Amino acid sequence: MTDTATDPALSSSLPAKVETPFQRFRAEFFESRIATGALAVFLIIVLLAVLAPWITPQNPYDLAQVSVMDGRLPPGSESFDGYTMWLGSDGSGRDLYSAILYGLRISLTVGLASGVIALLIGMAIGLIAAYAGGRIEAIIMRIVDLQLSFPASLVALMMVAALGKGVDKIIFALVIAQWAYYARTVRATAMVERGKEYVEAAQCLGISRFRIVFRHILPNCMAPLIVVGTVQTASAISLEATLSFLGVGLPQTEPSIGVLIANGFEYMLSGRYWISVFPGLALLLTVVSINLVGDHLRDVLNPRLKK
Amino acid sequence: MFQSAASGGERDLTEPLVEIRGVSKRFTKRLDVAGKIAQRLGANIREETVHAVDNVNLSILKGEVLGLVGESGCGKSTLGRVVAGIHAASDGQMFYEGKDVATLTGADKRAATLAIQMIFQDPFASLNPRMRVEDIIGEAPRMQGIVSKAEIPQYVDDVMRKVGLDPSLKKRYAHQFSGGQRQRIGIARALAVKPKFLVCDEAIAALDVSIQAQVINLFMDLREELGLTYLFISHDLSVVEHIADRVAIMYLGRIVESATTEEIFSDPRHPYTKALLAEAPRLDQRRRAFEPITGEIPSPLDPPPGCTFHPRCPVATAQCRSTVPDLKPGRGGRETACLLEHGETV
Q: Is B286 within the bounds of a domain?
């Protein structure tokens, strides 16, 4: 057997290291200081929320630890139990610092869980639509259009009104409100990828349909999905806060950020700003940091915006 | 190790390896609901059908290189994709080693699918950007059970060496290679399933001229070594003249002339072939002014009646506007689709 000689000139100009697409993406992402900072802020928020039981003086869900004697104390006051309430307390006597961290736990859980579930459902439906084509695609995409013509907050509000309160019900409502965004994104990307020559090559090589969809097309659809997923997670968090603020989200006994803001709302005019403002800032910081990361992800992952 | 069924260099130029009969490929743009309503209301829209390939007969003999030449938009790439099994033909039959491909099942069908592989034009879009070279090349042989899982690394190394790639680069991704190297990866991917027939769709058009020569030489080396048969689709006449044994000229979805390379280039018969050859740049004709073929290639949505070339043909007669010429032997036994060549005009 004779081997065609390797041309040494061809291999000399290459970079010496193996560079995975992920490594390339990571290098480009950290070029932006704003995005790096936003990611750091978000990770700190996640860390604080996860560690809440160990770094807060009070468990705001445990009624035995909450004293009405501590109600509406301004920031920096000392509580009845002797610890300092750096961010003050709300009307029921909850330490706001503790309540915010516990509230973030709920907000992040709801946002991430509904984001991941909606992504998986939307992805499957979008892929089916793109690959099946014809009537199935038409039906699926008309349902998506119908759903997207309503504001997400309205859909979520209707779902919660029908289902009642509770974390699981909120997550379900948010999934119903958001799956359509993912389905539309995946379908559009999959249609583009499907027409590319590497998919034709895979067909030619006799690779099964299932494998072509999940191993060839899907990995190439991930970039826009990640971007939509980030932005939608941020919007799920603020949607949950909206629902809780309106009193249809989570119950008073499990205060999420939205419930805290709503609780402080009535005291705003009497000068007790801290009850609403500090939870509001926490929500703002969370949503803005996720959105900044999402924006930059879009810039990095969109080949048309590449320098 | 790497070997093919046909021993290297053997050419049996009598038996067709692949034959297509009466193959057409139409693409129809269907109206959606909104379009249908608009049509009811009297809007001037209709379902549009493109006859990309129209009633083509072609046979490719074992071991030969058939060049398929035509302007862009004439349907040569679509014909190549039908032959490679990527598009299903709208009409007609395709035979592989004398058997109708549509009737094959199970292992026979798989063998026929794998025997015909395609090399694509765009060395960027034709490789999956999320896969390592070893997976791009090794996936199909592993899935198809050509090589056991344990032997895959060795097998991938062999195939890479065969196309002139350094096996130490196999952990890399496609974006880390140059255009010529990517095209070699595409060739290696096709060779990994031990094909007998390669459809090369403008396989060198996107490469630099210096790299083009290397890749053409690679094709020819592989042909000698593995006894491959090629359908070489190109718009570049000089390349086709260099490597093809036989040439088919395509115009607006139909084959208008088919002959050996010598015959086509020394004595073209169809007026379209004559015009194409006259305009090909040649070193010995540097000083002459080129006269492009008058008019544009007509839209395949609305092809002209009769011979589709008549609006641009310098020798068209009245009959050419109404009678569709078939591809059949005319004067001197040469296959053309021209009424004048068939002696059927007055």
A: no
Determine whether the interchain pair B164/A4 forms a contact, defined as Cβ–Cβ distance below 8 Å. yes
The total of structural domains in chain B comes to 2
CB interface of B with A, residues 285-344, below 8 Å: none
Q: Are B324 and B54 in contact (CB under 8 A)?
A: no
Positive/negative CA dihedral, B121, B124, B125, B130: positive
pLDDT, tens digit, 9 for 90 and up, residues B168-198: 999 988 888 988 999 999 999 999 999 999 9
- Greatest Cα pair distance, chain A, in angstroms, is 91
Reported ipTM: 0.84
Q: Is residue A180 part of a domain?
A: yes
- Backbone torsions φ then ψ of A191, nearest 5 degrees: -65, -40
Q: How many helices (H) does chain B have, and how many strands (E)?
A: 11, 12
> Which structural domain, as residue segments, surrounds residue A32?
23-54+97-305
Instruction: Please report whether residue B31 resides in a domain.
Output: no
Is there a contact between B303 and B51 (Cβ–Cβ < 8 Å)?
yes
pTM equals: 0.81
Nearest to A109 by CA among A228, A245, A250, A237: A237
How close, in Å, is residue A215 to chain B by CA atoms? 9
pLDDT digits 0-9 by tens, A228-268: 999 999 999 999 999 888 888 888 877 888 888 888 888 88
With CB atoms and an 8 Å threshold, state whether A206 touches B161.
no
CB contact under 8 A, B180 and A5: no
- Per the structure, the complete domain to which residue B263 belongs is given by 258-280+294-346
CA–CA dist B218, B39 (Å, integer): 54
CATH number of the domain where residue A213 is located: 1.10.3720.10
A219 and B118 within 8 Å at the Cβ level: the answer is no
The answer for A 256-295 residues in CB contact with B (under 8 A) is none
> Helices A218-245 & A96-132, crossing angle to 10 degrees?
140
Determine, yes or no, domain membership for A14: no
